[in-house]
Amino acid sequence: MPDELHQSAKPRLGDRFSLWGYRAFCALLRITDVRAVALFGRGAGYLVWLCARRRRRIVERNLRIVLDPTLRRDKLAPMVRRNMVRTTMNLLCSLKTGLMSEREMEKSIRVLGRDSFENHGTDGQCGIACIPHAGNWEALARIRPCFPKVEHYGSMYRRLSNPLMERLVYKARTRYGCEMLSKEDGLRAVLRFAKGGGLLGVLSDQFTNEGVYVPYFNKITGVTPLPALLYRRCKGKGTLFSVFTRNTGLGRWDAEMGRVIHVPEGCDGTVALTILVNRALEKCQMENILDGFWMHHRWKSTARFVPEQDAEDWKLAMDRPGLLPFRIIVCVPEEFEEALPLIPALRVLAACRPDAQLNIACPQEQLAFWNTQDFVAHAVSTDAATPASAQLEEDELYREGPYDYLFMFSENRRVFRDLTRRLGPLYVSGFAENPLAKRKHAFRSTFTGLHFAAPRHRALDYLTLLEKEHHITLPPLRYAQENYGSATAEGDFIAPFSTLGEADSWAEEKWAELCARLYAPTLLALPQDGERADAMARRLGIPCRTCAPEELRLHLGPHCRLFAVDGLLPQLAALCGTPCTVIMASRLAERYRPLGEGHRTVYRHRPCHPCHRSACDQASPCTAEIVPDDLLR
To answer: Which residues are CB-contacts of 352 (< 8 A; sequence separation ≥ 6)?
Structure first.
């Protein structure tokens, strides 16, 4: 790399201190035997295991994906400890690798399959080494002298943020003839290298949000397509290899170089080749799973968790039995009326990617309703005796793998702490107005509504969060669910009782006048209003039906008509496709009206409207000015 690339960023004082410390540490490593370094690395690994609780959870998550999603913490704990100890040792010894003498290298590194690997890098051919993060992978740059017939021997790498240390590390890596190609410089130099022939190493198992999304250990994740692009660039002169190092003893490693990835005839697409590379890397990792670098968040999520990937590529990615889903938890608002506008956004989340799985955390009163929604995989209660996280980790749900994403629309601090502590690491998203988001690093993504704009429906807030913050393409807005309501139900219904409180009420004599002008109306109420609903129905001389929210779909449908005060019932009726006429008292119609076609809202503008109160403090409520003609007009 030219020196001017290293001089593009001006070093800071902290960069200089880091460089001095690194040089002193390297001087100490240079005079220390590699076995002593390995012993010290093991001791440091135990310290990392004891102190780095968050890293332990990441390793637990990764090992569940790699080995068995049903593994519990009691079986994972010893494997986590051994992996963190070995990984720390390998990382420390990788610094020693670049400082070893030729004699130390011969004792510490054994190269296997060198002839096969070398032969595919001569005569204009290119050997493309697909390397997982396992063992002492820095040794692969150090063994350049083992391949004297190869004119070009290079590797991809990522630059350090410290320009002074970057220059020092770059010189150490290239001292023995290895050409280092930075990903920050673009792909042009890499593609030119592959076309010219030689041996090129690519660390292929790192997460990348800009790559293709294909399975890696039975869970879809972002993977670099670079090996596939290089293979196609070589036009028949390239060979894919799975190359890795494994720890064989104290201060000793094997570098396995000769494993060819055989590409079947007709497998020439980028996604198909990347899947082939991943399967080869999986076999390498499974030979000694504890040698893998599982301390990084390999299957992590970002704000943009829905990749721009063609349907054919998704079909190839999903064509593997036993895939673990991309598991999304949505903690809905505590108020039932506030939770229902989430439905359009929940449908979008459930359909955003083929492996998406939607799980709902809600209060007990909402549980039965969410279980009737076909886009919800599982629903758990947030106010039961058993914590929501424990319910989400019951055997039937646990075997489907770790959770990936949490949308926090509730303001319940206890529930938030429970979900993030037990089910993490989770990527958390929500509204900036949520009090929980004010805690430092509590939410990874937040979205602020445009309060200065014209009022818009609450459902659009949730959809805009998905579109603006998470870059999800939205389908046309739809609320009523097809075939959800009863196709045979018909008639007029009234719902005089609101779940919002007495502020949303209409005088009984006006309900009586309305009923007299309707054909055989029926009073509809929720179980908590059952007694007073029966009494009012007797006074009005009409039948009464009391049903739970999840049962309302059996009584309402598109051939019915509902006259109601604002609250839960009109929202549920709109979901069934029932046209609703709603009296809006305490809330703003533009924000909380029923979604869909055929609905009307009736309200009277006053200085106190909307008040968002459960009880009216005015001598004459705003609903007093509304008459039956307003509803029937």
So the answer is: 305, 306, 466, 472
